[in-house]
Amino acid sequence: MGRGKIEIRRIENATNRQVTYSKRRNGIFKKAQELSVLCDAKVSLIMFSTTGKFHEYISPSVSTKKIYDDYQKALGIDLWKTHYDRMQEHLRKLKEINNRLRREIRQRMGEDLHGLRIHELHGLEQEMAESLTNIRDRKYHVIKTSTDTYRKKVKNLEERHGTLLMGFEPKCKDPHYGLVDNDDGGYDYGIALGNGVSNIYANYRSQHNHHPHLDHQGGGFGSHDLRLA
């Protein structure tokens, strides 16, 4: 019993369509290769799948460009002329845009103003004023952003400083650790030695510019400012 005739129409199932394309593509390439070998024919076969994938077969003795050139000679046409003309038109438009932008730049720098009419000069002046306004707005925005950032950093530092002071104040009242207020307006740094044998106190006055025991050379404590408890 022979095979039934297959109706030639589009396969609706995408998977089946792709499988059929792959099988028949290989068959067509095989036939093209056989035709090229048996008949010494120049064969060029180009295929694109529905997914846009490119497949090509070309006879070993020729190139794709050679096939295109022979095709153009046989039909008397130029396959590249339309594309070349389109590229030339696109290049011409780009050159016009480039020349216009260069002219506008020169005019904004006070050059190439000859030949401009009064309304063109007025429009140029208005554009310059708008550009200056935009530049100023941008400048003020940058300054404001920098100032806000600086203020936030200062605020964070002040909060950290206040937190450190709150934790340090209880220790200042301990004569073996922190600061001790004196009756004469000064205060002492009390440093307790770890072995508990003795304490060293260095007296420092709040009005250090009137302190008689300051070292005049370096502005610090002299040897007579230290005493053992």
Automatic annotation (TrEMBL):
<protein>
    <submittedName>
        <fullName>Uncharacterized protein</fullName>
    </submittedName>
</protein>
